[in-house]
């Protein structure tokens, strides 16, 4: 089966001059139609940059290399006009702060209707009917009244639902989610996660879900790709990675979880801090913090490999 | 003559006396309505009572609008409460204990590590500011700043002269912790102090907080939306909902046998990090309501799975189930009229 | 508890380069700002060295050499309606024009910033009192207010500068108030309050350093407005009196020649434009350079 998303050797470099910042370095990732992959990582790991590359949302000064194909389309080769059509129609995105992504001076209903008409045409009435239908699908109570709300009149959870409705307005094949539940309260977060999962099944969407929270990844994803300093260090089925992480960083993240601390008076931590992207070590980026480090790790970047026949890990000493 | 050291703070009431006792704390913020509209107010904190024992960590959890951050700001007196008393180690704050002396003993760490440091001061100057205000000579205050930097894991020779924007989020939060400790406080209020940090950094800072608590004999109020973190840090837990205390008790009692349905729902909402334990239905529907118009009766009644008519009429008191474990729920209050309430003992 | 109190004296720590050094180096990297600054410096030098630079006396006229075009031998930039050398008058004009344009701004900065910072930090009633008074002045268009004040006080250099100062105080006060109100809400101010510091200490140590920069940037942008208003006042006969050379006044007296020799008549305007654009570009660059996170 041809993948819905096929990212090969993606690299994104910000800034020029003496210290360019390689935010993403050689990311390769493929998603089957209807598959949900979580990109898990901390700030600066390159997870959001990778996600934004799929819509070419970077500033013009960023240097992007590699290839991205979505549903057979070469994203890098799209003309500006084709790109505008591609955004929203083939691939749409939801953000951490829907309040910033919505226009405060138009009602939510108008904004969704406008998105519908831009991509599919039709009359105002048809577009509005479509918006109402979408509001029902994302389970916004008293949908008809809510369509006439302005963004500031809605709570964070409702707004994120409205954002999802807008993202689905043109029947995209791929949904990109950039930490959509991070700013939400716990009781609302789980509602949105369940909604994403449900809609994903209903529409057969391929979803890339960026998060820093393993718990969130476990709730929505089929597979997970763990990123560190711009590279994928481990990738595999969510259950495999959570039960037996192979990369020392992934293991460290899992071990550091406070949920596991029951009875202990200290948390297990990964020593040190993530490296400065403008000044990465020559070999494995994790080597300076790693307990299993060897000479090889300091000179050579370990390639992604599948030592156990399932999943992939970029480490010379996995396990 | 400027002093070289701060005068030491003494324990007055002995270990059994609570360090902090809060009674009937109220803070409403007026909301601008129309000229002829009704005068309305955000009931940010609406009658909160609790106490903090010496040397313990009281965890405070709840969602946005529950009043946990307002409570923190009231306790540090960044705003004046509309009503209520705060008694610190036996002395009423504002009466027997002056605000200035109280503030030396109670310090706060904020969530936003960048906004809580003056961008134009080096970090040693930021840390030394408090002691200087309290009369410590500049040189001694700077020395103290260096000691504290070393104590929070930042090599003073490398970091003391830096500006906040030159540090990472985790490093800045260590500076904020050092700054809070510079006055040798007895109570430190941590308002979402680790929430903005990456998980691996969060774990390091939590360990640091535990070490500092032990080494300096501190008492913490640890406010967080993350129940897992609170479970790790706290000895006792207070759950807040819409400006009120919903439940308060020993950590294990609250986490293992929650008495308030809101606590139970909050616990069930936490992601499990186990794909085998995925849920099909969310524990609660809807968003936390707006604290401008809290519903009559129990404030949780519109979202509660066990709601009965009586809940819409009666405002449940914070009732003790067992000593040291109380919940504001009619189901926990005998003779309340709720069908699940315990029978009145004959 | 006090184990830390008896500490050895502080070791000299590595210091980051100071804030202003960082601002300086960021400015130096921006060619537009450097160019604008160079123009400003050149104009100031021109004003200071006018007697050395000007080929002729600025008020020496010749009725037979009126309104010569640019490039006339002996009159490289032509001559005005009284046959005076334009180049010399433009050079001398820089003195009064820059004086009138620049002086009101720092004076207004002193008063406006003080009012605004007090209002912003105090909040409540004090804020309402100061800011509503400021609003009364702000309600008048600045040109109108300057003309009205100068007209009432009578023409003259001092009165014109005083009017301009009064015009700018409310504008600077409003910016100062909004910047201070923003800073006041930040957690580091709360942290300072929680440490028991008094309001004056907090304003001096934590507020000033963070608000003066943005207010200063705004004030530099007013210099260009001030230049234009000052010229306007002179143009209307409310500022400098003839025969003193001042660009605005020159523009006025030359307007009769606009059909005879438009290029010469436009020269004072061109200098006003260059000066105000330079101050504006410099102020924009300064704003960017003062953002530590850039």
TrEMBL record, chain A:
Residues 7-254 form the ABC transporter domain. SMART domains: AAA. It comes from Lichenibacterium minor. Its main location: membrane. It comes from the Bacteria. Belongs to the ABC transporter superfamily. The lineage of its organism: Bacteria, Pseudomonadati, Pseudomonadota, Alphaproteobacteria, Hyphomicrobiales. It is found in: Cell inner membrane. This is ABC transporter ATP-binding protein. The keyword Plastid does not apply.
Automatic annotation (TrEMBL), chain B:
It is found in: Cell inner membrane. Residues 273-295 are annotated as: Disordered. GO terms for cellular component: plasma membrane. The keyword Nucleotide-binding applies. Pfam families: ABC_tran, oligo_HPY. Its EC number is 7.4.2.10. PROSITE patterns: ABC_TRANSPORTER_1, ABC_TRANSPORTER_2. The keyword Iron-sulfur does not apply. It catalyses: glutathione(out) + ATP + H2O = glutathione(in) + ADP + phosphate + H(+). It is a peripheral membrane protein. It is an enzyme of class 7 (translocase). It comes from the Bacteria. SMART domains: AAA. CDD domains: ABC_NikE_OppD_transporters (cd03257). GO terms for molecular function: ATP binding; ATP hydrolysis activity. Residues 285-295 have a biased composition (Pro residues). Its main location: membrane. Keywords: ATP-binding, Cell inner membrane, Cell membrane, Hydrolase, Membrane, Nucleotide-binding, Repeat, Translocase, Transport. Residues 20-267 form the ABC transporter domain. Belongs to the ABC transporter superfamily. Glutathione importer (TC 3.A.1.5.11) family. The complex is composed of two ATP-binding proteins (GsiA), two transmembrane proteins (GsiC and GsiD) and a solute-binding protein (GsiB). NCBIfam families: oligo_HPY. This is Glutathione import ATP-binding protein GsiA. It comes from Lichenibacterium minor.
UniProtKB/TrEMBL annotation, chain C:
CDD domains: TM_PBP2. GO terms for biological process: transmembrane transport. Residues 94-283 form the ABC transmembrane type-1 domain. The chain crosses the membrane at residues 31-50, 96-123, 143-169, 215-238, 258-282. One of its GO terms (cellular component) is plasma membrane. InterPro entries: BP-dependent_transpt_permease (IPR050366), MetI-like (IPR000515), MetI-like_sf (IPR035906), OppC_N (IPR025966). Pfam families: BPD_transp_1 (PF00528), OppC_N (PF12911). Signal peptide: none annotated. It is a multi-pass membrane protein. It comes from the Bacteria. Keywords: Cell membrane, Membrane, Transmembrane, Transmembrane helix, Transport. PROSITE patterns: ABC_TM1. It is found in: Cell membrane. Belongs to the binding-protein-dependent transport system permease family. This is ABC transporter permease. It comes from Lichenibacterium minor.
């Amino acid at each position: 089966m041809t993948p819905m998303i096929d990212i090969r050797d993606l690299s994104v470099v910000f800034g020029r001059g003496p210290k360019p910042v390689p935010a993403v370095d050689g990311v390769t990732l493929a998603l089957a139609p209807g598959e949900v992959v979580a990109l898990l990582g901390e700030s600066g790991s390159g997870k959001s940059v990778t996600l934004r590359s799929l819509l070419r949302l970077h500033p013009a000064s960023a240097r992007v290399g590699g290839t991205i194909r979505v549903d057979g389309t070469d994203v890098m080769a799209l003309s500006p006009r084709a790109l505008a059509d591609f955004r929203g129609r083939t691939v749409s995105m939801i953000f951490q702060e829907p309040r910033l992504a919505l226009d405060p001076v138009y009602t939510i209903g108008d904004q969704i209707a406008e998105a519908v008409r831009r991509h599919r045409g039709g009359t105002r009435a048809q577009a509005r009917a479509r918006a109402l239908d979408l509001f029902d699908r994302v389970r916004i109570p008293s949908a008809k009244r809510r369509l006439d709300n302005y963004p500031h009149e809605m709570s964070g959870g409702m707004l994120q639902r409205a954002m999802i409705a807008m993202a689905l307005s043109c029947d995209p094949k791929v949904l990109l989610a950039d930490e959509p539940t991070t700013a939400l309260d716990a009781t609302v977060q789980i509602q949105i996660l369940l909604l994403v999962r449900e809609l994903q099944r209903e529409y057969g969407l391929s979803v890339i879900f960026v998060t820093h929270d393993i718990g969130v990844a476990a709730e929505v994803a089929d597979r997970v790709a763990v990123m560190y300093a711009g590279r994928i260090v481990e990738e595999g089925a969510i259950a495999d990675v959570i039960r037996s992480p192979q990369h020392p960083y992934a293991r460290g993240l899992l071990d550091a979880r406070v949920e596991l601390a029951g009875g202990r008076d200290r948390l297990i931590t990964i020593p040190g801090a993530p490296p400065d992207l403008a000044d990465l070590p020559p070999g494995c980026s994790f080597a300076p913090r790693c307990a299993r480090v060897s000479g090889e790790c300091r000179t050579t970047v370990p390639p992604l490999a599948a030592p156990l026949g399932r999943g992939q890990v970029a480490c010379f000493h996995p396990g | 003559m400027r002093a070289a050291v701060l005068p030491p703070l003494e324990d007055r009431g002995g270990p059994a006396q609570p360090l902090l006792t809060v009674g009937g704390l109220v803070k409403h913020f007026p909301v601008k309505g129309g000229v002829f509209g009704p005068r309305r107010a955000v009931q940010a904190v609406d009658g909160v009572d609790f106490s903090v024992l010496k040397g313990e960590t009281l965890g405070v959890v709840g969602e946005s609008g529950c009043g946990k951050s307002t409570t923190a700001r009231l306790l540090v007196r960044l705003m004046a409460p509309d009503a209520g008393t705060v008694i610190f180690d036996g002395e009423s704050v504002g009466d027997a204990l002056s605000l200035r002396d109280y503030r030396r003993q109670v310090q706060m760490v904020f969530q936003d590590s960048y906004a809580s440091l003056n961008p134009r001061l080096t970090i040693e100057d930021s840390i030394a500011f408090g002691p200087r205000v309290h009369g410590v000579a500049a040189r001694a205050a700077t020395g103290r700043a260096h000691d504290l930097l070393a104590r929070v894991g930042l090599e003073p020779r490398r970091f003391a002269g830096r500006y906040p924007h030159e540090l990472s989020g985790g490093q800045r939060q260590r500076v904020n912790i050092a700054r809070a400790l510079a006055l040798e406080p007895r109570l430190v209020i941590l308002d979402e102090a680790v929430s903005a940090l990456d998980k691996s950094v969060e774990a390091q800072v939590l360990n640091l907080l535990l070490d500092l608590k032990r080494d300096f004999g501190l008492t913490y109020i640890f406010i967080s939306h993350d129940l897992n973190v609170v479970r790790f840090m706290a000895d006792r837990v207070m759950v807040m909902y819409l400006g009120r205390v919903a439940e308060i008790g020993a950590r294990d009692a609250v986490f293992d046998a929650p008495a308030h349905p809101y606590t139970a729902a909050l616990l069930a909402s936490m992601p499990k990090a186990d794909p085998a334990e995925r849920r099909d239905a969310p524990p609660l529907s809807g968003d936390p309501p707006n604290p401008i118009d809290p519903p009559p009766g129990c404030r949780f009644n519109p979202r509660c799975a066990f709601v009965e008519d009586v809940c819409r009429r009666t405002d449940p008191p914070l009732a003790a189930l067992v000593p040291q474990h109380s919940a504001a729920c009619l189901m926990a209050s005998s003779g309340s009229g709720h069908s699940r309430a315990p029978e009145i003992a004959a | 508890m006090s184990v830390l109190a008896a500490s050895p004296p502080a070791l000299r720590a590595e210091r980051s380069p100071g804030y202003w050094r960082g601002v300086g180096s960021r400015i130096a990297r921006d060619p537009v700002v450097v160019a604008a600054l160079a123009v400003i410096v050149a104009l100031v030098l021109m004003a200071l060295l006018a007697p050395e630079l000007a080929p002729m006396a600025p008020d020496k006229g010749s009725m037979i050499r009126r309104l010569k075009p640019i490039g006339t031998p002996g009159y490289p930039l032509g001559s005005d309606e009284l046959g005076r050398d334009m180049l010399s008058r433009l050079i001398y004009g820089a003195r009064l024009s820059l004086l009138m344009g620049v002086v009101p701004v720092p004076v207004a900065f002193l008063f406006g910033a003080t009012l605004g910072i007090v209002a912003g930090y105090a909040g409540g009633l004090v804020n309402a009192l100061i800011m509503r008074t400021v609003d009364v002045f702000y309600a008048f268009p600045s040109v109108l207010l300057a003309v009205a004040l100068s007209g009432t006080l009578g023409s003259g250099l001092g009165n014109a500068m005083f009017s301009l100062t009064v015009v700018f105080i409310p504008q600077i006060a409003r910016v100062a108030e909004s910047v201070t109100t923003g800073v006041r809400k930040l957690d580091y101010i709360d942290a300072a309050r929680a440490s028991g510091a008094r309001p004056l200490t907090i304003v001096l140590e934590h507020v000033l350093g963070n608000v003066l920069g943005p207010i200063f940037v705004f004030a530099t942008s007013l210099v260009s407005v001030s230049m234009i208003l000052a010229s306007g006042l002179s143009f209307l006969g409310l500022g400098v009196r003839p025969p003193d050379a001042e660009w605005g006044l020159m523009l006025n007296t030359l307007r009769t020649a606009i059909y005879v020799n438009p290029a010469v008549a436009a020269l004072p305007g061109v200098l006003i434009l260059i000066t105000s654009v330079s101050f504006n570009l410099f102020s924009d660059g300064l704003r960017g350079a003062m953002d530590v996170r850039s």
